[in-house]
Amino acid sequence: MIGTLDPNRKSVTIIGAGVSGLLAGYALKKQGYQVRIFEQSSRAGGLIETKTTLQGPAESAAHSLMVNPEVEAVLCDLGVEMYGVNPGSHARYIYRKGKMRRFPLTFFEAIQTLIRIFSKPARPIDPESASLAEWCRTYVGDAALKYLLAPFVTGVFAASPEELLLSAAFPRLVPEFPEKSLVGNFLSKRKSKSAPKAEPPRMMAPRFGMTDLIAKLRSKLATEIEYGRKLESLPDSNVVLAIPAPDLATLLDANDPMAARALREIEYSPLITCTVFIRSDSFTKNPPRGVGVLIPRDEGLRILGVLFNSSAFPERTKTPEMHSYTVMLGGTSDPKALELSDLQIREIIETELKTLFHLRAPSDAIEITRWKKAIPVYSGKVREAREALKRTLCSRPGTMVFTNYSKDVSIRGMILALKGF
Ligand SMILES: Cc1cc2nc3c(=O)[nH]c(=O)nc-3n(C[C@H](O)[C@H](O)[C@H](O)COP(=O)(O)OP(=O)(O)OC[C@H]3O[C@@H](n4cnc5c(N)ncnc54)[C@H](O)[C@@H]3O)c2cc1C
């Protein structure tokens, strides 16, 4: 989050009732603040919505979150029932040379990667200005960049590692000693920090879909949310701004043109998410088990990845003979995908899922959601906008920005940041 509240005032206005605005309202109300939330639309949740279909739930955006004990405590307090990944379904795949593989590198590439992570770099990176791709090429190698990091990053940001600023997107990867190897940095960090080892987070999903998180937050803020209230100018402090960068830029045009310009520069990846339902008898082999598959570019498929919803989590379909998948299409590498008609999207998905899963018949149903501006691309532009907000709008206590470009794009990151209020 950017900025601080004025501790002398015990009331706060929050703009935006997406998950970040609701989380802010929940945390601040608990601290005794009198909270008001203004939401321009007629519903809370913003990007997040679980649609109900005849075949099962279909998420429009986020489908799961990484949960550690701190996040679990918040979800528990809210009363959100969570499921962990089904036993035996933890596998994650990368598609390469026509097959889904748990380890996509060749023997030779694996050896090269091992050598690289133990070797001092020939040319260390500048940790502040390096892209994620430069970091990976320097400390891990080209094969890992292409077949491990790039598909993973596409799955999270729908953008490429070349576009992401290391220090903005993955600050924990910034090497403390750029001249040392990756392993050297890891060992130095371990020596200098004697903190107890934290439990690794687990992937979990709400039993009743992501909408349940929104519903539980909403119920804690039943009288505080005002719908159909589009803010046209900034209210007095205290205010928490939890709205996308272009909307905040519009609010700031008159009073803060510098911050408005910087916010407008933030790019968003375009993305299509499709929940696809397929019957058991459409598979010529067993349906795939695991969390999902990511598709590197240049492997002959247009889709970016597939989440295996019903393999990973229970209750994702109405009947056991139905299987649910979420397919992602578009991203910064394929913005034209957003112009495709529903029919064209359906054709691409069916053709490519047939290749991927060896299907004999097409899917039963597809639920399509298009996002022209899905996820902020964590490039240098995000850092510049944050700096501009710190220098201007948020320079004095009373105004905060708390949303998915202020620090962390994930819901887990937002929950962890609540202690900053
Ligand atoms: C396809 C996709 C998949 C994702 N998957 C995951 C995932 O699996 N796990 C995860 O952790 N994260 C995931 N994310 C990221 C996460 O969902 C988002 O970062 C998060 O939902 C953003 O929430 P927000 O509240 O910051 O913004 P938004 O959801 O955009 O909410 C902003 C709200 O502000 C309102 N608003 C805007 N302007 C005004 C105004 N002037 N006055 C009043 N109201 C206004 C809008 O109507 C909206 O309701 C995913 C994102 C996408 C797009």
**Strand-residue fraction?**
15-25%
Major beta sheet, strand line-up = 8-7-13-14-15-12-16
Low-confidence stretches: none
CATH topology of the largest domain: FAD/NAD(P)-binding domain
Q: How many individual β-strands?
A: 17
Main sheet specs? 7 strands, mixed
CATH architecture of the largest domain, by name, is 3-Layer(bba) Sandwich
Could you say which small molecules are bound to this protein?
flavin-adenine dinucleotide
CATH level 1 name of the largest domain: Alpha Beta
Fraction of helical residues: 25-40%
Query: Counting H and I runs of at least 4 residues, what is the number of helices?
Result: 14
Tell me the CATH superfamily of the largest domain.
FAD/NAD(P)-binding domain
Cα distance spanning the termini: 9 Å
Radius of gyration: 22 Å
The shape is globular
Total separate domains: 3
Structural class: alpha/beta
- The average pLDDT is 95
